[in-house]
Design goal:
Strand content: 25-35%
CATH topology of the domain at 7-125 and 295-312: Rossmann fold
CATH class of the domain at 7-125 and 295-312: Alpha Beta
Number of helices: 13
Largest sheet: 9 strands, mixed
Radius of gyration: 23 Å
Distance between the termini: 68 Å
CATH architecture of the domain at 7-125 and 295-312: 3-Layer(aba) Sandwich
Structural class: alpha/beta
Number of strands: 21
Shape: globular
């Protein structure tokens, strides 16, 4: 007796979503039953690819459709909440990259998948090219000897045209989290995911070194990863670069017995070759065409049909996110006057990022940066009894006193003069981040719960119905004296 095919829904059917839908539909491995997209035109184009599906009006109805799996292809700010909501309903998830806008957000999704015992995968599609698979086989077999260096590049002569890509709060960053995520994944996947001991980085925006402006995103980035194997990995990525062609994509690995280079052909985003390097000789061993775009999605469907349970491979997405956070942190240090541009064991670090009694006098070995501590001690490097790092706040879940999840923290507002956090801006309402409003809540009302892994506030949804709020950045309040008194008075907090 033939097992029933997995029932799939698609949340977001822009170009990428439709492409993955078309690939899965062509495979015949799944039944596509439901589609949700805020654009009627996109939904209708998707329906043409899966005529048996229903166009549903809301994400709520999508998760009520009895799905085995959900494919998410929406703006990055929505990925984590959408994935967690689906996983908590017992629905497996295939999500576009990045899974989260930062490492803490990504880890929360992975842990939700583990708790629900449901399959979670991220669309790291370049792993599935024939060129990358062949390169992986060369590395694993030892044909290249010991890998000691790698250079990976992704320059896009165009860059994204959606405004949210250029808003750090919505995207998590610029070209690093958009394109560099693929480079980090390929570098670690092809070398067996060794520990990354040190990261150095520089980022630029419109040709100028990027400062610590939290609103800006990078359009050019360079980074070096020093791996525990002894190998050095160099990364470069960009948007809108004068590259002389549409795209320049390359992953070259050098070993003690030779090298190999995965390259795009003629500036194409889709056609790749693999060239074996030996001295002055270059032998092409893989050539296009290769219809690889939806291969990762189809592989997820095949695995879902075989076993819908949690796959520890999902942890790799969080490990990639950890490295991306380290790249951003190293770049921020490089941009700040008087700071060093590296992390890792023995790296000098400023007083505000490590525990050195006298940074100017302490030897390097006495100073441990945020990335030096083992996982079990992570709370000691980004959270103390009195302080918490900003990247542990943004995106953190918020619960009421009964343990019901209300939403998540989008950001927090800090007094420029005192440095005191005055408000947490909560994303509440809507569903899966769609149609949500933003509620400034006095910071003093929040209590962090280690048991919940998030903040607890003595509120309920009824009280939020008439609370001060705004719907998007275009009508964000001025946070002047009058508004502050209004907010504090509503919640019964002394201003």
């Amino acid at each position: 007796m033939t097992a029933p095919r997995p029932r799939l829904g698609f949340l977001g059917t822009g170009w990428i979503g439709r492409h993955r839908l078309a690939g899965i539909a062509a495979s015949g491995l799944a039944e596509i039953v439901a589609i949700v997209d805020p654009s009627p035109d996109c939904a209708l184009e998707a329906l043409a690819l899966a005529p048996g599906a229903a166009i549903l009006s809301s994400p709520e109805s999508l998760l009520d459709a009895g799905l085995d799996g959900l494919v998410i292809a929406t703006p990055s700010a929505l990925h984590a909440d959408q994935a967690i909501a689906a996983l908590e309903r017992g629905t497996a998830v295939f999500c576009q990259k990045p899974l989260g806008r930062n490492a803490p957000e990504t880890w929360r999704v992975v842990e939700a998948a583990r708790a629900a015992n449901r399959l979670l995968a991220v669309d790291f599609s370049y792993r599935h090219t024939i060129a990358a698979r062949t390169l992986a086989a060369l590395v694993e077999s030892g044909a290249l000897g010991d890998i000691f260096a790698a250079d990976l590049t992704f320059h896009n002569a165009y860059g994204p045209d959606k405004a949210w890509f250029h808003d750090r709060a919505q995207s998590g960053g610029g070209c690093v989290i958009d394109l560099g995520v693929h480079l980090v994944d390929l570098a670690l996947w092809l070398t067996g995911f060794p520990a990354v001991e040190r990261v150095t980085a520089r980022t630029f925006a419109k040709g100028q070194p990027l400062d610590e402006n939290p609103q800006a995103v990078e359009d050019y980035a360079l980074a070096q990863l020093d791996l525990a194997t002894g190998a050095a990995v160099r990364l470069a990525c960009s948007w809108n670069l004068d590259a002389g062609q549409d795209a320049l994509i390359e992953a070259t690995f050098h070993g003690t017995r030779g090298g190999a280079s995965l390259r795009n052909v003629g500036g194409s985003f889709y056609d790749f070759e693999l060239v074996r390097l030996s001295g002055t000789a270059a032998e092409r061993i893989v050539a296009p065409p290769d219809d690889w775009g939806a291969r990762a999605a189809v592989a997820w469907v095949r695995q879902l049909a075989d076993n819908p349970g949690f796959d520890p491979e999902a942890v790799r997405a969080a490990e990639v996110a950890d490295v991306l956070d380290r790249i951003y942190a190293a770049a921020a240090l490089a941009a700040a006057p008087g700071r060093f541009a590296e992390d890792g064991p023995g790296a000098p670090c400023p007083a505000d990022l490590c525990e050195c009694p006298e940074p100017s006098a302490a030897p390097a070995s006495a100073c441990q940066s945020q990335e030096d501590q083992p996982m079990a001690d992570a709370v000691n490097t980004d959270e103390t009894s009195e302080l918490i790092a900003s990247n542990k706040v943004e995106g953190t879940s918020v619960f009421d006193t009964d343990g019901e999840r209300l939403g998540s923290i989008m950001n927090f507002m800090v007094d420029k003069r005192s440095g005191t956090a005055e408000y947490a801006v909560m994303q509440f309402g809507g569903f899966l981040g769609i149609g949500a409003d933003y509620y400034p809540i006095p910071w003093s009302m929040l209590t962090y719960s280690t048991d919940q892994g998030g903040y607890v506030v003595d509120l309920d949804k009824d009280m939020l119905e008439d609370a001060p709020r705004y719907s998007d950045e275009s009508n964000e309040p001025a946070y002047d004296e009058g508004y502050n008194q209004q907010v504090y008075s509503y919640y019964g907090v002394t201003y």
